[in-house]
């Protein structure tokens, strides 16, 4: 059977270029709100679960108490004995690095084992792993295992902290008892001080023993060097006195004597030469003038000269007294001359003796210089041996002094650390922090619940926005219809009250959708078929689809248009259904015979009809063309509730002939896979969706 009517113009379907202009599927801030509202039970359930777990944890977890002891550490140690065993130099950072390293020392095994031994902690079931559960299971640990378990448990309960830019360590211990926590914190702090003193004493003792062990070796090396020096001097006949060679000392002394002899010889020679030049007036020489005998004789001479002069005036030249006085004067002058001669002779004799002594000393010096030249080469080696000996003596003296200092350091504690605040029993428990955990559970539950909601949405995505819907069906979204109407009912019957029941917002959205569908100008002016709209959806959106289809019919009717409403989805469940669209598509009835107007409205209703007989699709398309052509004489619009096309194959002839195919989906409720399935079903029937209407349950 061939159709004499033209087929539906395919330009209504969007082409590839038009489809590519739609926005990609993205999740916006508003979409996120829709997801969270829809998946709110995930969020609230997660919050409730975490809060319940927190409450149970807080009720059944034993309380823990924390106490802290404070230790002040001065990087510069006490200077009791100066040595380099425990250097006290401060690093450029003010000792912060040195103090920071003490955090690890406090937590070291040695310090903790001292504290464990001091408090007998291996017998405490809280720390030794021998709690109630272990006793019930009958397990017993060896002493070594118990110590290891106690050490491990104490480390888990210990925290050593240092505040920024301070040299104070906080030793914090947590236990089930406040008194026990304070006791352990103080024990660890005291054990740290004892450990540091012991470590420094051990370092000093080890250094002292090491140095003492080297003393015997150094002493032997000094003795060997001394023997080598003495043997070398004996072999080379080098006698030492006061640290110098005797030959060198003799040469020095003789040189000194020679210099003195030369000076004396020169002085005596000058005296002799002077006397020889003043032979007539020898008494004018310095030697004569210094002579006491000559001075006495000169005084007698002067007295006699005065006496002779006086006698000559009084007695005359021939007077015996005058003659006696003159004779005495002559004798005195002879004595002066003889004394001067004696002085001259003695001076010459002294000069000759001094010259002889000088010559003898010069000969001796010449001999000793010759001998000294022979010992110069031997002295070079001797000085080298002596330098080695002095170096060994210096090292030996340093070793001896350092050994004594380190022995004294063993008994002196130079650690400059002290406990500035002993731990006190805590007044409040430190764990569990009930309020903090509760707040964390609430906010953590909100975050985790939100994450789970987003994961659930990603695993099963729903229609979130118009842009996402447009990208999925490659057709425009004609509008978003509020899910709630003024009467609170899901959809309305046809009649005069239907338009009034629809809210103003819903009426405006549906009216704009109708104008968008038929205002594009793509429908030819002389098109013989009545304008038609087929409304479809996924199987789960039946109620919203029927409501939207009836809203389209009611809105068009409220604007004065005569509307034919075809319900291709309903009536199939009745035992004896009335003839409807399926009967028309099989050619058994004319649509005028089976359609009827709703009371008080411009809407004519055509039901589903009987589906017992099967018709060919080509026959159905022909009769659909005839129906739409005939309807153009009585109606301005045909609205078809096509049902879920993926399940309603009987609507295929209508899909092929209608102008607009509108998909209905609910925001944040309709799964995207259902939208894709419905769009593919339309495509299999030879068409593409031309638009979509979304239902917003939040509006």
Automatic annotation (TrEMBL):
What Pfam families does the annotation carry? GNVR, Wzz
Q: Which UniProt keywords apply?
A: Cell membrane, Coiled coil, Membrane, Transmembrane, Transmembrane helix
Q: Which SUPFAM superfamilies match?
A: P-loop containing nucleoside triphosphate hydrolases
Which interval of the chain is the signal sequence? none
Residues covered by the Tyrosine-protein kinase G-rich domain: 375-455
Q: Where in the cell is the protein located?
A: Cell membrane
- What this protein is called in its record is GumC family protein
Q: Which residues form a coiled coil?
A: 208-278, 351-409
Q: Which residues form the Polysaccharide chain length determinant N-terminal domain?
A: 26-117
Report the transmembrane regions from the record: 41-60
Bilayer topology term: Multi-pass membrane protein
């Amino acid at each position: 059977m061939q159709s004499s009517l033209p087929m539906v113009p395919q330009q209504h379907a969007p082409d590839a270029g038009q489809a590519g202009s739609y926005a990609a599927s993205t999740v916006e801030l508003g979409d996120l709100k829709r997801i969270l509202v829809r998946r709110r039970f995930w969020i609230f359930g997660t919050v409730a679960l975490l809060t319940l777990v927190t409450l149970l944890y807080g009720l059944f977890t034993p309380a823990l108490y924390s106490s802290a002891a404070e230790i002040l550490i001065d990087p510069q140690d006490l200077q009791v004995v100066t040595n380099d065993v425990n250097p006290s130099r401060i690093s450029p950072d003010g000792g912060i690095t040195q103090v920071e390293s003490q955090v690890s020392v406090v937590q070291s095994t040695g310090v903790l084992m001292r504290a464990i031994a001091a408090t007998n902690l291996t017998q405490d079931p809280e720390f030794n792993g021998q709690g109630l559960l272990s006793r019930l299971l009958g397990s017993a640990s060896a002493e070594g295992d118990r110590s290891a378990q106690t050490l491990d448990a104490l480390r888990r309960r210990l925290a050593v902290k240092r505040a920024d830019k301070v040299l104070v360590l906080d030793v914090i211990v947590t236990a089930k008892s406040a008194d026990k926590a304070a006791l352990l914190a103080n024990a660890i702090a005291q054990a740290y001080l004892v450990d540091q003193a012991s470590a420094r004493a051990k370092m000093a003792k080890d250094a002292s023993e090491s140095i003492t062990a080297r003393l015997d070796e150094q002493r032997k090396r000094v003795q060997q060097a001394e023997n080598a020096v003495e043997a070398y001097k004996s072999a080379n006949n080098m006698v030492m006195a006061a640290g110098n060679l005797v030959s060198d000392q003799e040469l020095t002394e003789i040189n000194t004597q020679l210099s003195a002899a030369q000076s004396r010889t020169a002085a005596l020679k000058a005296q002799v030469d002077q006397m020889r030049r003043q032979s007539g007036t020898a008494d004018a020489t310095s030697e004569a003038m210094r002579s006491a005998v000559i001075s006495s004789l000169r005084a007698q001479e002067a007295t006699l000269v005065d006496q002779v002069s006086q006698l000559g005036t009084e007695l005359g030249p021939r007077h015996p007294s005058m003659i006696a006085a003159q004779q005495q004067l002559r004798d005195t002058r002879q004595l002066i001359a003889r004394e001067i001669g004696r002085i001259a002779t003695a001076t010459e004799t002294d000069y000759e003796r001094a010259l002889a002594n000088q010559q003898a000393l010069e000969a001796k010096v010449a001999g000793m210089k010759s001998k000294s030249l022979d010992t110069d080469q031997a002295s070079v080696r001797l000085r080298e041996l002596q330098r080695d000996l002095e170096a060994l003596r210096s090292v030996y003296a340093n070793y001896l002094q350092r050994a004594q200092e380190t022995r004294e350091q063993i008994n002196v504690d130079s650690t400059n650390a002290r406990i500035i605040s002993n731990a006190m029993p805590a007044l409040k428990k430190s764990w569990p922090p009930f309020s903090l955990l509760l707040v964390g559970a609430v906010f953590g539950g909100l975050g985790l619940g939100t994450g789970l909601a987003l994961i659930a949405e990603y695993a099963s995505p729903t229609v979130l926005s118009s842009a996402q819907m447009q990208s999925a069906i490659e057709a425009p979204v004609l509008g978003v219809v509020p899910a709630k109407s003024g009467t609170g009912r899901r959809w309305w019957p046809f009649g005069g009250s239907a338009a009034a029941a629809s809210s103003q917002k819903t009426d405006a959205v549906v009216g704009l959708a109708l104008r968008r569908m038929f205002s594009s100008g793509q429908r030819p002016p002389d098109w013989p078929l009545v304008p038609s709209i087929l409304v479809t959806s996924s199987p789960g959106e039946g109620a919203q689809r029927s409501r939207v289809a009836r809203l389209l019919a009611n809105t068009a009717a409220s604007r004065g248009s005569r509307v034919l409403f075809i319900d291709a989805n309903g009536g199939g469940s009745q035992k004896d259904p009335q003839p409807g669209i399926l009967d028309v598509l099989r050619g058994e009835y004319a649509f005028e015979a089976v359609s009827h107007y709703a009371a008080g409205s411009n809407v004519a209703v055509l039901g589903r009809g009987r589906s017992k007989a099967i018709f060919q699709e080509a026959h159905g398309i022909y009769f659909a063309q005839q129906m739409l052509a005939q309807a153009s004489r009585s109606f301005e619009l045909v609205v078809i509730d096509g049902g879920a096309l993926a399940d309603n194959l009987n609507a295929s002839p209508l899909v092929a002939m209608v102008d607009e195919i509108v998909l209905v989906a609910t925001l944040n409720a309709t799964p995207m896979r259902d939208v894709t399935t419905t769009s593919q079903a339309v495509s299999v029937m030879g068409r593409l969706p031309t638009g979509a209407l979304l239902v917003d349950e939040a509006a």
